[in-house]
Amino acid sequence: xIKRLQRKFVVIAxxxxxxxxxxxxxxxxxxxxxxxxxxxxxxxxxxxxxxGRFPEFDPMGMKHDKPQDNSDSASPPESKKPDKHRGFNEExxxxxxxxxxxxxxxxxxxxxxxxxxxxxxxxxxxxxxxxVLDSGKTSGTSGNYRYKTGDTDKGKIIVFMDCRSDSATKNxxxxxxxxxxxxxxxxxxxxxxxxxKRAIRPVVESFEKQKRFITDAGxxxxxxxxxxxANTEVLEMVSEPNQWTASIKNQITRLNGLLKELLxxxxxxxxxxxxxxxxxxxxxxxxxxASPFTTLAETKGKKLTIDVANGxxxxxxxxxxxxxxxxxxxxxVKYADEGGEIIVKLFTSHSGxxxxxEVSNTCKEPPQGDLTKLFDRFYRDDSSRSxxxxxxxxxxxxxxxxxxxIVRSHKSKISCKAENGMMIFTxxxx
Length: 430
Fold this sequence. Notes:
Oligomer: single chain
Shape: elongated
Distance between the termini: 19 Å
Number of strands: 12
Helix content: 40-55%
Structural class: alpha+beta
Strand content: 15-25%
């Protein structure tokens, strides 16, 4: 149980960390791609506004279309918005590789300018231009080039800018961020694994104290129960047995049974329960364990059917498996409807890798809600499973907990479901 808790803690922490890393790395790369594309679009806009070329760089962020008059009456130069020339400096026009395609109002290409790029010929530029005009898009990416269209007095202008360097930078940034993120994720996961024992230490201590309390209390209670039992027998020897002594003996039997099951549950939930694992004929074991309940079912007006496949073998603790069958069968007999049917089945699963033990009983009013609670200690759904003509069933509410512990000690699974008026418990024994 402690190891399962530790594994669950590590898995949850690792999954949460993975989600956070994906969000961070995705967000960083998303911002990087957006900013890179935005800078490219700014440069494309500058070229389009200047009819296919870069303007002269003005460090003051101003563009002079004509010489300025130095007289006092001269008006101040027109300022351009800083965002418009973001990413533009005195070296930009020498570093940026681009070509321009011009088209008339009818969509016919009239001129191309490939003087600022070496990788594209005039014929290739025309093909690029036709492709954009046919698509009807105003911006996007074509091969290694990012393009944008604009309108002029003579028609359209399409500017293509070489973005291979930007693409390579984005890819490198993505690979580096993923590599660093993966290395950090592995490192943090290792730290989580190392310190997980310390994180769950309070739970472990509480669980150990609980097990120790159950064991110590069980041994301490045995002595007064033995004395009460002996005193009751003396009373019956001195005077005749009566309803009071009979009630005392019944309660002693009940408490002894409860102590036995509590100690058995505590033993089964240890990290390494003392199981004797060996190959045995599970078909015979299931039949032998379930058969004695036939008479009990008949006395309660119910029918027990045992359907066991012959010759099946299993590697496990035979005694524990017999106890599992007894618990599930007794539970089914106890809670089956009046005049109902109990069915015990043993068969090989469809995959052929498991041996399935299925115990079912008729149940017109199945439990509501989460059925896994039936495996909790001392849980009994009296409103639905413990009613038969107003009579409450006996039991301690820990039988199914022991069954679950037995199955888990064999690294297998047990489940329950309610369908077609039947309550079905299935142990998938691996």
